[in-house]
Amino acid sequence: MGGFMQPQGHVQVLLNMLTFKYNPQTALDAPRICIGAGLPEVGKVLDRTVYLEEGIGEDVADALAALGHEVQILRGWERGLFGRGQVIRCHEEDGKLVYSAGSDPRGDGAAVPV
After folding, report:
1. Please, is 32 exposed, middle or buried when counting C-beta atoms within 10 Å of its C-beta (0-12, 13-18, 19+)?
2. Residues in contact with 55: Cβ distance below 8 Å, sequence separation at least 6, in sequence order
3. Which residues on adjacent β-strands are paired with residue 97?
4. Residue 77 needs a FRET pair 20 to 30 A away by CA distance; which of 52, 54, 95, 113 works?
5. Which ranges of the chain does DSSP label H, i.e. alpha helix?
6. Model pTM greater than 0.85?
7. pLDDT digits over 47-61, tens only?
8. Total structural domains in the chain?
9. Is residue 104 part of a domain?
């Protein structure tokens, strides 16, 4: 993840792990949202579009649009907007250190135990 999506993506993955108790892989697999920030290099300085990744229901898009938001669902290669991430987590469980990891399906990485 980079640019304007980086902090948004970090928060979403972290919330998936802390709030929903997802393991790192499930947290990375979950569909994301992105509040647009604009693309100055193509002349669009301000973009308030709410981008939803495929996997988030059309009903969510419709509800956001009803609130006045411009909404766009991104599919296929367009999903590159949502970045890629890898997570290594270390936590204590039953008095032992446990490591787990995940690699974003939007990229080409892998989490491999050694």
Report:
1. buried
2. 30, 31
3. 92
4. 113
5. 5-18, 24-29, 58-66
6. no
7. 788 999 999 999 999
8. 1
9. no
Question: Which residues are bridge partners to 31 per DSSP?
Answer: none
The DSSP H or E segment spanning 85 is none
44 beta partners: 39
Residue 67: inside a domain, yes or no? yes
Kind plus residue range of the DSSP H or E element containing 83: none
Note whether residue 92 is domain-resident: no
β-partners of residue 35 are: 50
**Structure tokens that stand for 44 in this block:** 């669009």
pLDDT of residue 38: 59
**Bridge partner residues of 87 (DSSP):** 102
Q: Which CATH number characterizes residue 65's domain? A: 3.60.20.40
The two structure tokens encoding residue 57: 């229901």
Give the CA distances from residue 34 to residues 7, 9, 52, 93, in Å, rounded to whole numbers and listed in that order.
Answer: 10, 8, 7, 34
Q: Which domain range does residue 32 map to? A: 5-84
Reported as a pLDDT band with limits 50, 70 and 90, residue 43 is low
